[in-house]
Amino acid sequence: MKKAFKWLLIAVAALIVMVIVAVIVIPMFIDVQKYKPEIETRVSEITGRPFTIGGNIDLSLFPWVGISLSDLHLGNPPGFQEKDFLSVNFFEVRVKLIPLLSRNIQVKRFILEGPRIVFEKNRKGVANWEDIGKPSVETAGKPSNEEEKADESKSDEGLPIKDLVVGEFLITNGVILFLDGIKGDRKEISDVNLDLKDISLDRPVNIAFSANLDGHPIGVKGNAGPIGKAPGKGTVSIDMTISLLKELTAVIRGNIVDPASSREFDLGLEVYPFSPRKLVAALGGEFPVVTADPGVLNLLAIKARVKGSPRGIGLSDGILRLDDSTLNFTAGVKDFSGPDLTFDLNLDSMDLDRYLPPPGDEKPAEKQESQKPSMAEKSKADYSPLRKPVLDGKIRVKDLKAHGARIQDLYMSVTGRNGLFKIDPLTLRLYEGYAASKASLDVRKDVPGIKMELQAKGIQANPLLNDLLGRDFLEGTLKAELDIAFEGDDGKSIRSNLNGRGDFLFNDGAVKGIDLAGMVRNAAAALGLAEKEGEKPRTDFSELNVPFTLVNGLVKTDKTSLTSPFLRVLVTGKADLIKEVLDFRIEPKFVGTLKGQGDTRQRTGITVPVLVTGSFSSPKFRADLKGMLQQELGKELPEGSELKKMLENQDKESVREKKKAVKEDIKDLLKGFK
Would residue 213 count as lying in a domain? Predict the structure, then answer.
């Protein structure tokens, strides 16, 4: 028995020695180079592209199974600028042989030197990657149910190995080239280097990646894993730092759950403060935005938690810093086809005027040209994409400046569904007062419609108009109500369909630039031809009420009134927003003395009505003398031709008497102008 066991051990040892000798000696005597044509042909058949191996094939079997190749070329089909789709200077992989018997894969080295990949789209719009590895007719059919079940059972089993260890994994001096034959664009990522360390199934993998994007350095460092013995299942941790041009640094930390199936992730994202202007300058480009303040867009930082899956993404604990402003935010997106979007934004302060284009930046000729509708603008707009999104959001702003106006404590609730978007409510404080509004945008039809309601009270009109319009013409405390609606998607149609009503009430203020008291004392002043030197004319009032209606772009008012202790002013008329013309009559009346206006005499004489006509850009003012005479004489005067005809039928004596009577009447009327 002992002798038999001894001979068995000798036989086994001899077998092992023979195997070892074989794996060492065989590569020395077998010419693997003769297999190059067969390998090239087989790869060409699989990829559908020409494939060549320019260098030698080196093979080793013990103790590491290894193969090395050099000068590999996978070509492009005809019709492309670049000859090769993929080329590799050198490739080597070495795997330990004995552990393979127990399904343990130990890779000594995996090296890829000088890989070059070209993604090219030719002038016909055909991409060079579209037809790689197209399945043959025999294998193009769908797998049977049995095959699908077999694949599922295999996927459940995980990897057909027990362990994986890679000592060295390197990709060096790689190049990725992007060519667009239609646009003529060329983008190159060069000096691509990837170094993976401590590769195994049960430990995190250290990752170091670097490259140059059109000559600008980018890099990624960190670790990921472990991936476990069933890759695609379980939780994979990520801790990565991304750098770009030494100007931008971002960190991503978190977990990916079941990457092969549910693909859920929970990641923390932080982009450290950087200057967008400096980043664009480092890339060699011109900053795409021209701002009124060139000092803005010099600091940007983002921090947020990103959680999601293929079904949706959620942002929480978000903080965005832009220059001097800080925005806290949460947001979520689900049903990407819509999408269904929720958000909650909270901004501390912002001066929007700093980010707008500088005033006067556009030339007059450019302005005129921009007003001409293009062919795209003339074509009918398609609002169907706006009928899909679902919105539910809130916006809060502590302090805001826009177009010169300053706003505090802005709150806005935005909702939208099936093409109907609502802002309800919108509240804010401004200039010692308060405003509340609600509005809606309806794109359920081919022509959009907008409705808006506004209530405001306690607002100081003078600083608001000064900041908003840069004009100092009105003082007073404003109370306002506004309810308007319109349809259309261009200026003309909007003005033509503008309807609604409004009422603006100003208390304890003054109209600057107009001295109504002076006008009624002096006809020249009524025509705007006289002012007191060194004084800016003004009309003080206790109440200025401006009610109006809007009917298809025509603004009408019948009861606009100004009330002061000595004067009442009634304004009637209309303004055509389509033709941009005015037609108003201003009728002042005395109710007492002109104390405080440089005159203490009792005023019960006539007043001078003023007609306002002309265009919005060039209004005209003239005294309504005819209306004044008719009012005082208590009858309507004939027109000039009728008056002349009437006078011709009278004898000269009668004419002289009537002319004298008329002159006396006019003298009496003009006494009020002294």
Answer: yes
